[in-house]
Amino acid sequence: MENNTKKHNYTNQNQTKTDGLPDIRKIFRLALSNWYLFAISIPICLTVLFLHNRYTQNTYRGTVTVMLKSDEPKSISRAELIEGFGLSPEMKSLENQTIILRSKKVVKRAIDQLDFAIDIYSNGVLMDYDMYSRSPFSVEMDSTHAQILNTPIFIKPEANNKVTVTIETENALLHSFKDEKNHGGSGHISFSKTMNWGDEINTPFGNFKVISNQSELKPEVEYYFYFRSHDWLANYYRGKISVSPYKEGSSIIYISSTGLNTQKIINFLNALSKVYLEQSLERKNEIASRTIQFIDNQLIKVADSLKCAQEKLMNFRRSNVFSAPTELTTRLADQYFEFEKELNLIKLREEYYKNLNNQVINNPLGEDYLLPAFSENANSLISNLVIELLGLINEHKLTQADGAEINPYLDELERKIEVSKQNLLTALDKLIENISIEKNKIKHQMQELALKMNQLPELERKYLDVERGYKLNDAIYTFLLQKQSETQITKASNTPDNEIIDEAAISGVVSPNRKKNTQQALMLAFALPIAIIVLKEYLNNKIRDKQDLASLCSSIPVIGYIPQYKGAHNNVIHEEPLSNISESFRALRTKLKFMCPAKDAQVITITSTNTGEGKTFCALNLASAFAISGRKTVLVGFDLRKPRLTEIFSHHNHDGLSNYLIGQSSVDDILYSGEVENLSIIPSGAIPPNPSELIATSYTAELFKTLKERFDVVIVDSPPIGVVADSRVLMEYSSCHLYVVRSAKTNKEHFKHTIQNLLSEGIDNIGFILNDLANNAGGYNYYTERYYMENKK
């Protein structure tokens, strides 16, 4: 028994080494056994790949390169921006530029400059083609007439310079391109008319002409076109715009768009980049124009005052005769004039800040905060706050125009605008308060000076008042003219914030990506069969090879591998001695010498989980293998319910084991000679009604005692242990037990449950025989079969 244990452990260790290798080998065997799946999958995937790459239209990407100019220092200070000399800087972040470029306002202005409203296609066999810039005909529409939108209008050239126009739709939108307004639905339309090229089609749902650009069009080609509203086109192209930086931290960006027609992509990107530059320049010029308008309004007021002051001074001089003012009078008059001039300029700034304060309160999202041309040069806080607020408001309007109903970024912008507005209002209140203090100080100084001037002669005093009024209006008028000239120069010198580095060009094909498609097709070609194999493996509930067997019970060794046999013989040892299956039984016989050392006669019980797993076949051939080796062997058919041995040897009318167990026959009466020398057979005999009770009688013990005295090897073909309990009784008389597992036949769960019960009952010295093993399930069978086939030759 000690030798048995040692050998048992050795076998397990050897098996563990083999099992540790190779799940990869198992996967490879599974792939080889299912090679037809790959043979089907690979051609199909490659064919689909070819058809997809061949008959899918190329989608191109066009790109225009733009440089965002940095805020370089200029000779004009930031405070002067409020004065009209410079304007608020545009947002330069990539996110903001994307919002601006994809805003409906900007995209629609670009569409307005293009001829995209008429979308012409040609019908192909497998696909349709965009005929923009290469259409053999053109369409002239009446922009004042309602046209049917987004409905295909089919054009079929006919012989004799004719054309057939067909329209079929249930209901479509009518649109006037002149006023860009929709005019309700068209209702059901079923229209078809054959006419000359260039004839006018005048219907309630369209007014247009189809004009041929060639002498004669081919009748076999059919075309169709759509009328597209500019709003629809703007929304469509907004989704195709992408903005990306040249590299992180770079001021150069790429503006890209995709489409099927290269010329259409280029035209759109050029128009978009042009509008993109124009809109920032126009905004600058608009602010400068408002500044000029403010100055012009002030000039008109001051000019009237200056004219009145001039006439008053001339009238005074004509009406009064007096000598030149004294030096004291002149000095006092000059001082009072400077104070009054400064006071008026302070009042002008105060008016600006109060107006700005009211605009912020009453119109928080307005864009006309830069109306006045005056600011505190000594304090740039207001300038910076106004610039910040204008930038946020502009960004808010462009984001709002993006059209999204729910936009978290819009909520964040509104919060920032509110904070910026409060900061500006706080700064304005403080500045207005400081101006009021300064204004009161100057008024006090003027009052003191006025007391001194009251001591002058009355005539001189009146003259000085009239002259001072004239000089004050003249100084203010001169100041405003200077500011007007400077602002006009600034407006004329305004340039776009950004610059186009490279005009639009096609940068490549987006789809189909042939390289990527090839990789995906090859991956799919192999992934599909593998997925099917894995699924089959997952759903499989049968034991197929030693890996499956080891996963269910690793403590019991596999001592025999019986290859798949498709021949008609039952005793292959006798009929086909040179076959690989015969060699497998010889190998099993050799291993049993170590598993069941022969101190006495060897008693070997052979069982299985269920019927049909080959235990009788294995019992017969193992018995024959022992017999031809010169050992006296007896094969006992203890499967009384299904007497397979009786059928094989045709002993239906002879006494058998069942007769012995009921006391009708002796051992000698039921012993028959086998086909092989040294082999005896005890068939099952007639099927009894109570096989379990018969096997449990004392006759069974006496039989084994007699057989062990007469034979060297006793092979017991017992009932399936997974079905009936008879085998458990017979195992008490056995020195070792062989459990037959049939590949692709034995159920995993039934097997697992049966083995667990055996082990829990303390039955040991068990060995598995893996029967009906496919030739690709293990290397040994392949080489033995090849070896014996070569010997046959």
Automatic annotation (TrEMBL):
Q: Which Gene3D superfamilies match?
A: P-loop containing nucleotide triphosphate hydrolases
GO molecular-function terms, A-Z: ATP binding; identical protein binding; non-membrane spanning protein tyrosine kinase activity
Give the matching InterPro entries: AAA_dom, Bact_polysacc_biosynth/exp, GNVR, P-loop_NTPase, Wzc-like_C
Residue intervals of the AAA domain: 602-721
Substrates-to-products reaction catalysed: L-tyrosyl-[protein] + ATP = O-phospho-L-tyrosyl-[protein] + ADP + H(+)
Coiled-coil residue spans: 410-462
Give the family from UniProt.
Belongs to the CpsD/CapB family.
**Protein name as it appears in the record:** non-specific protein-tyrosine kinase
Q: Which organism is it from?
A: Plebeiibacterium sediminum
